[in-house]
Design brief:
By secondary structure, the chain is α/β, with parallel strands linked by helices. It has 2 domains: 1-81 and 153-242, P-loop containing nucleotide triphosphate hydrolases (Rossmann fold, 3-Layer(aba) Sandwich), CATH 3.40.50; 91-150, no CATH class. It contains 10 helices and 10 strands. It has helices spanning 45-52, 74-79, 97-104, 112-118, 120-124, 135-148, 165-182, 193-199, 217-221, 224-231, and strands spanning 5-16, 19-30, 34-38, 58-65, 68-69, 82-85, 153-157, 185-189, 202-207, 210-216. Helix 3 (97-104) packs parallel to helix 6 (135-148) and helix 7 runs parallel beside helix 8 (193-199). The longest helix is centred in the last third of the chain and has 18 residues, at 165-182. It starts with a strand and ends in an 11-residue tail after the last helix. It binds adenosine-5'-diphosphate (ADP) and magnesium ion. Magnesium ion binds next to helix 1.
């Protein structure tokens, strides 16, 4: 782990209607690094991402991004380069691929040709109506839209939801090379454990709103039983050396 931390979450408790959904959660990710966030349904993965981009009020603890406390307005954080690709995608179904992308372009962002270079398939489908794309193609478009804003911290919620393992196998390595090329920090919530560990630098496993396990991805690749134990709340080791 070499990058300077660009996102640091320290001991946060966040919930809904005063009821905590995550408790005492900490994580950190540096430029060019990918942190995989794993855990079963309801573990608090989406809540963690929403808190990290300022979309949910924090009950206690701190979120620091690019050296400053996170703002309570998501738009302000997005303008500073902290961008969430939510599990609801955020693509406009009635518009074409090209129009979706055009709406996401901005001054100082990554140019459209570079993004088409990352996803040549989108270029070939640029006049297609977005509602007619497959799930995988829509996910690719959502990722492409986020990249156009040149995020420094990109948070991705279950990009591969509903995709075939083959589609995921194609998408995740591409994300790895984009993170390297753009020196972008990525927090990746992902259900495909092996594929996520295959491209990540570090990983945490959440269980019942807490970090059950935190380690380098390399360590965890060879320790699937440890990862699974943490998933199901059986982990005794809270923290492997990373
Ligand atoms: N809008 C909400 N209102 C109330 N509780 C919620 C809401 N969203 C999530 N929760 C609860 O917070 C916990 C964590 O949910 P979530 O962060 O969505 O988990 P994950 O993304 O890991 O599946 C769950 O117990 C869930 O029921
Ligand atoms: Mg979720």
């Amino acid at each position: 782990m070499s990058g300077t931390p660009v996102l640091e979450i320290d001991d946060i408790t966040v919930g809904y209607g005063g009821v905590p959904a995550i408790r005492g959660l900490s994580l950190s990710v540096g430029s060019g690094e990918i942190l995989a966030v794993l855990g079963p349904n309801g573990a608090g993965k989406s809540t963690t991402l929403l808190a990290a981009v300022g979309a949910l009020p924090i009950m206690s603890g701190t979120v620091t991004a690019l050296g400053e406390p996170i703002h309570s307005a998501v738009e302000k954080n997005a303008r500073r380069g902290i961008t969430l690709v939510p599990d609801t995608r955020g693509v406009f179904h009635r518009l074409s691929v090209a129009d979706n992308l055009r709406l996401a372009t901005r001054k100082g962002g990554v140019d459209l040709d570079t993004v088409y270079g990352y996803f040549p398939k989108l270029k070939s489908m640029r006049s297609r109506r977005c509602g007619n794309l497959s799930g995988g193609e829509q996910q690719m478009l959502a990722l492409a839209k986020a990249l156009l804003t040149k995020p420094q911290v990109l948070l991705i919620d279950e990009l591969s939801l509903g995709l075939s393992p083959i589609a995921v196998q194609e998408l995740l390595p591409r994300l790895r090379s984009i993170a390297d090329e753009q020196n972008m920090a990525v927090v990746l919530v992902e259900q495909h454990i092996d594929l996520a560990l295959g491209i990540a630098d570090a990983a945490i496993v959440l269980h019942h709103g807490r970090v059950a396990l935190a380690a380098s991805a390399r360590d965890l690749r060879d320790r699937r039983e440890t990862v699974e134990a943490a998933y199901f709340g059986r982990s005794e080791e809270a923290d492997l050396a990373s």
